[in-house]
Amino acid sequence: MKTWLTATLIHILYCAIGFLFLLPLWWALASSLRPLNDIFRDTSPFTWRALVPDKLTFDAYRSILFEKGFGRAVFNSLFVAFATVLGGLAVNSLAGFAFAILRFPGRNALFGVTVLTFLVPFEAISIPLYAVVRSLGWLDTYLALIVPGVANGIVIFLFRQFFAQVPRELVDAARIDGASWLTIFFRIYLPLSKPVIVSAALLIFLFQWESFLWPLIATRSEGLKVIQVALAGFEQRYQTLWNELFAAASLAALIPLLILLPLQRFYVQGVTAGGFK
Amino acid sequence: MKRRSEALVAYWMLAPALLALGIFRIYPIAVTCWGSLCTESFAHAGKLLFVGLANYLDLFKDPIFWKSVWVTIKLNIVINPLQVCLALLLAVMANQRFRGIGFYRLLFFVPIGVSLPIACIVWRIMLDPNNGLIDSILALGRIPAQPFLINQDQALWCIVAIATWKGASFWMIFLWAGLQDVPREVQEAAQIDGASQTQRFFRITLPLIKRPLLFVLVTDTAVNFLLFVPMFLLTRGGPAYSTNVLMYEAYKSGFTYGEMGRALTIVMVLLALVMIAVVAQFSLFQREKV
What we know:
Structural class of chain A: mainly alpha
Strand order of the largest sheet of chain B: 1-2
Oligomer: heterodimer
Radius of gyration of chain B: 24 Å
Number of domains of chain A: 2
Shape of chain B: globular
Strand content of chain B: under 5%
Helix content of chain B: over 70%
CATH class of the largest domain in chain A: Mainly Alpha
CATH topology of chain B: MetI-like fold
CATH architecture of the largest domain in chain A: Orthogonal Bundle
CATH architecture of chain B: Orthogonal Bundle
CATH superfamily of the largest domain in chain A: MetI-like
Low-confidence stretches of chain B: none
Largest interface: A-B, 89 and 95 residues
Mean pLDDT of chain B: 84
CATH superfamily of chain B: MetI-like
Mean pLDDT of chain A: 84
Strand content of chain A: under 5%
CATH topology of the largest domain in chain A: MetI-like fold
Radius of gyration of chain A: 23 Å
Largest sheet of chain B: 2 strands, antiparallel
Structural class of chain B: mainly alpha
């Protein structure tokens, strides 16, 4: 009897917190499927219909994707995020491997500097970064959005910690067999590191998908707007097209969630193996 | 000979990452440093003119700057411990094992997928004093409608709530990962020795996850000192400068008023504040050797 009660209380607690986490997205999603003229009908005064609308329509999605150019922004964000993930995995895993396995002068100092860079968030350097990217001639191009996000101190750290845990004997045996360092990296280390690759990829993906201030500064043209900037602009321009605003927000949240949730287990495994301990 | 080739390989492997970090992270910090000592001169068509500490002296005379310093510090004193404690609580909750936990874990992950700009926009509509969902729900309990973001006593705390809604969930991952590394046998042994659940948590679990805890605290602090999106999207620093954090003030100086020298000087002050906070956190964790 008592355990039954405890179990129920625990479920109530978990449900309450889960509800709080889900509420904004759920409400946005529910509202995005309502016709504009009764968008707030059940919100004030509040009825449960606010969360479960009775009439559903996809008009808002059709309008933002095909008439308001939101499809382009979704494409831009996906393109930028995936390009950065590919570049980031290559660059950061190599660096992590060098820091974890190879011996060379200056290793500790360079690793220290790398770790320190993630204490300086993008926001802090966005103003001078603007000048750097301008002098490279990259303003208002995809390069400006992609390249500065590729090298990432946290991701290098993640790879280094993971590689450092792989038994050293594997390397020594392969060296005696005459394998080059690159072969060892590609044949031994990479195949072992699936969870950490997933974590690293998701971290980079989320980082790019969410970036707001930098794309806002670095691009001007409509064709290069990423989803967060497009959303903010949309909010300012069409303040009363609530259903479309909700549709845009739902879309921008559902895309990363559809990628993140199936990979959830690997993501945590990778961070665990990456040794944040 | 062998050693030298190993080092050479290492430098080649590091080159892309270090070069990129150098150009896009470290060099901009150096530019910030230098830029804070200069002013753009109109006479020489935007050329930088060295002015020494003039930007700093001007800044220190400006009451709006001091107000922003205070808002930034107030925000961080609350938000960092809050986010880390809630993230830890969530991590402990996610780490339990019972039927149905998988479903709850999915729910706990939802805010990670919802970016901060989206969270801000949706929460703004939810907190709207006219049609807002939150006021409607409060009305069910006969609580009068609250002004939330348009009130200077509430706006900053609304931002804290929204950022924490997102942040607690994001940082949970790193702490949860740490918890998974705590060996079950240690817990069980302590249980057999008669340690209560609270004792086990504070005496065994917490010391064992000190490193991820410090990592999360330090990184979260760096992020929150530079929190910008909610102020930009929700309050524009208002009402009455009550949410005008240093990063927003820097953005305004640089991109609205074109005063780059002032903007970079503010960023330098911010970086200094972050460093002070981080050093304090490190020494706090070092001292508490459990």
